[in-house]
Amino acid sequence: MTPAELAVLIARLTGVAHEMGEVLRRAAFSPNIKERADCSAAVFSAEGTMLVQAEHIPVHLGSMPASVAAAIEALGTDAEPGAHVILNDPFAGGTHLNDVTLVTPVFVAGKLVAWAANRAHHADLGGSAPGSMPADATEIQQEGLRVPPVRFGPAVAEMFAASSRTPLERAGDLAAQVGANDLGARRIAELVDPVDGSTSVADLAEVVAYGERRMRAALGALPDGSWTFQDRLDSFGPAPDQQVPTAIRLRVTVEGDAITFDFTGTGLQRRGNVNAVEAVTVSAVAWALRSVLDPTIPANGGAMRPVTVVAPPGSVVAAEFPAAVGAGNVEVSQRVADVCLGALAQVLPARVGAASQGTMNNLLIGGDGWVSYETIAGGQGGRPPSPGSSSDPAPGQPGIHTAMTNTVKEGHQWAEPRHGQSGVHTAMTNTSQVDYRSAAGVPGQSGIHTCMTNTKNTPTEALERSFPMRVLRYRLRRGSGGAGSAPGGEGIERDLQVLEDVTVSLITERRVSQPWGLAGGEPGAVGENWLLPGGDEARAERLPDKCTLRLKAGDVLRMLTPGGGGWGDPTGEHGAH
Amino acid sequence: MRVGVDTGGTFTDVVAADGRITKVPSTPRDPGAAVRSGVSDLLTSAVPELLAHGTTVATNALLERKGAVVTLVTNRGFADVIEIARQDRPSLYDPWADRPRPLVDRGHRVEVGGRLGPDGSEVEPVDGDPPILPADTEAVAVCLLHSDLDPTHERVVAERLVDLGFDVSASHEVSPQFREYERTVTTVANAYLRPVCRSYLRGLRGAADEVMVMTSAAGLVPIDEGADIPVSLLLSGPAGGVLAAAEAARAAGWPDAVTFDMGGTSTDVCLVLGGVPEPAGERSVAGFPIRMPSLDIHTIGAGGGSIAGLDPGGALAVGPRSAGAVPGPACYGLGGVDPTVTDADLVAGRIPADAELPGLGRLDRGAARDALDAAGVAAEDVISVVDAAMEQAVRAVSVARGVDPSRLALVAFGGAGPLHACAIADALGMAAVVVPARAGVLSAVGCLTAPRQHDLVRTWPGGTDHTGLEEAAASLAAEVVALLGRPASRAAGPGRRVLAEADEVGVGKPGAGGGDSVEGTGGGVEVTTSLECRYQGQSHEIRVSDVDSFPAAHEQRNGYVRPGTPIEVVAIRATARLRAPLAPADLPVPDRSAAVGPAVIVEPDCTVWVPDGWRADPQPSGALVLTRTDAPRSRS
Fold first, then answer.
1. Please, what is the Cα angle at B507 between B504 and B511, to 5 degrees?
2. Which of B205, B239, B207, B203 lies closest to B220, judged by CA?
3. A14 near B CB under 8 A
4. A195 CB near a chain B CB, below 8 Å?
5. Which residue of A317, A557, B31, B585 has the fewest C-beta atoms within 10 A of its own C-beta?
6. Model ipTM?
7. Which of A 338-367 lie inside 8 A of B, CB atoms?
């Protein structure tokens, strides 16, 4: 293929994925998918290699291939036009139970040429608490309906609906998922076998090879070497014996145009829901690489070929049955991203900022016949000066000390963020003539989603018109960003009053450990969860980071989300608080 | 004589009712100077009876952040909604891609006590005292929760501030729909733009007997009205072009079409059904969701100035970098060295070698070829890649909405549109390409021939209960007709007599007329009502003429229906239009000749590329219609 033919094919395939995603969002019923865009769509080759993806949240980035592989295996030789496979089993291609993936083979003239796949977050699939992410789950059976890869049909749709607290919504969302894949299959068929036959199945392999070349070109510009970083998850459940941290340890090794992320030494999975399956970890690695190296590297299977992820089975980053995994997607993924950024900051210090809030602040509320799920934004870490053009990465300079700072309140010395460096620097280049540290940097943004999520908020007016709740306060949390020459962004303060008795699940992190500062910047403020019984400030009680509880009408739930870490020395020339 | 004037980034285009056109260089520091000089170029001594104007003054003030110091007054506890926005970030992967800085800084966010509930009822009475505003406040935006359901609190606060002499924009007047961030940012943008737009528009008063300005919804309003709601002017120029393109396609026999306006840095496409450009209720401008009646124009950041090159993976990338107007494409000879789409068009022979650009002289074909060679890219390849991007844009407004492109024409205009349209029509199997008369100044033609228009929207509080919906729609329709008839800035002008009869317009009930509009035609005023509907539980609305037509519309756009699921009405819209006395077809038909591809047709204001296998035929309407040589030459 010529460079132009390749570009044209990629544009057309990407158009297909985007169109699938649009149909999914427009036609879905649950606010999670429509308002918050918690969904993705992708096109895969006949062998199951991802070609293009339209993801709306990064946590789906690296985890869709596992779903398609599982579906292909399950379908075996029974693949035929219209044979949809559905799954949500985290241990068979899924991530957490809410994420339901539909995979559909695409046939042209009787020959399998590709697969269409989409994933959507279903608000409730049963389990012991509304929203299917009970904070006190210790095994996956408590989290809801688990479906291994099976042929989809009306009976399966009824099973999903029957398991859910919101069955009508499930039926609508599944219809939207089917509609998106059917459309994708039609479009791919038009594309791969147009009247003039100009695009062949072999051309699709060129798209994969292109992704690999882009990633290798970016990796080849990095210095060879090995870098370590570690950080922690504060707890794995609400019980006192679950309020214990877990370490996530990482060694990043660059060799030529390949890179390895080795999580050996990371803590074991626990009897709580703060466990991630490997697919989630791969997603976080893929996100961090793309955001640090070059956001324009395509999200396809080829781009991940030079990337090796070593995640020890049975650890918190590669959990095995029967672990509960509800918070793996939403919380472990955030910390894996932090750890990847912390390690990559040593390789490319001009391209990584301080830690962002590092949690999604999940809030699940269920009342009589309704379920609401929200994630609440926080502070972004302060950043080095903008590198401007993404085509001009500035690899790291030897001898630059990137000081991580972090205060761990409970004194778990072993779990403080640490970094180290070893190996030979053989490919040191510095394309930037400006010492990036001499400038003030760019402050982190306030009240914004970072790293592995990007879901929109539910507007106060929409929330109050849909559910018996009233928002009393929704403001930025002044002073919560870490000091730095580029200070961290601020978290959010939100007071939510329930107007009827409800069940609430809170799944949050960074309530003990602070989002770290970088290059001399101070850490951001930890988050806080509070209950104000009857809205009474005088009776306010601090809640743990993870809990499921009953609230009475009139109670107020107050959440203060973490600030971002600061970047750069706050006392220097450009220092600011 | 009536004139239409469109201010663009480089040129200000003027079209007179007798069909004469002129282009004068824009004067960004004082855009009115180019407007006046362009008009006097054409009309010499006479003062036009009407000046219909598409302006970029609001857009530029927003993009360049040159508006007023705005204080936002909002509910206690909600000062930062304007900064938190919808809590999402513009790019998943680029850590430096920030949201736009809020138009109101933290020191200018003022909270007041008082609260409404989600049904509009009072939870806490509004503060008795007017809020104290920062001393440097130049304009005020008031946005209180649920004020779309009951504006009483907002009115109380706004009236007190008006009494104190402040220039106040209240959200229930600017954007009376739910979702507080979008309503707040739209209201704030309005307050921000008011002083600069008011002074600009008032400065044009003497330029004609009557001066009207084009809105984003492709309708004309008196300048005082435009100055009051300047946020409605943000997409003024593009709207004029789409309106005239839609009319040109209809006149050429293609009521269903996609408009294709390819300029230097961006390309706009818009679906047209039944001669009417698809409406939109919200558009993103400078990163802000501006919720005003607009056309549903889809914009991509590629155009003639997009830079081509091989990326590190060996694919030919066109954009996102652009050479802009300065240095511009290599062939401009202004110092640009990167090859652009325009350079490729020149080297490929689509732009004739002897072409000249006003003010630039002859284009430098050698420089264009050198730039392409240095980057290792071939002209035809650059064209095929940019065409693929354009194809995706056209797809997004047609195929992705359930509309089969094979029954559509592609209406090409703008500097580069007629150079690239045929390849896109080929890729999508579109029926024909229409190049309207005066394609190079089409936005000005659109202004000249646009209707006077007023739009209203109201939240429907009943949801799935449709009792009283028809009456509410009829009442809104009557209201919008009355607003169209309110006195213009000058009491003279040909439109006034007709407007005086508007009170007698009969207003139909929704759906009575079938199709997608309800028309009362008495007095020349046309009234359309529509409903924003969704299935209960959805949060994405579809605009339909009546509740009964919602399932079919949902099927077309989303592929399925849900019998038995209640249909929720979110809002009612009403639009009143008074047709211009002059249609594009009334302009003199330019002299155009037929051609069989491959051929280049050079016209005073645009260049058309007719590829091999295509032919171009002038129509009685003045448009050039391009069809495949193996296809029927005319639809009718």
1. 165
2. B239
3. yes
4. no
5. B585
6. 0.90
7. 353
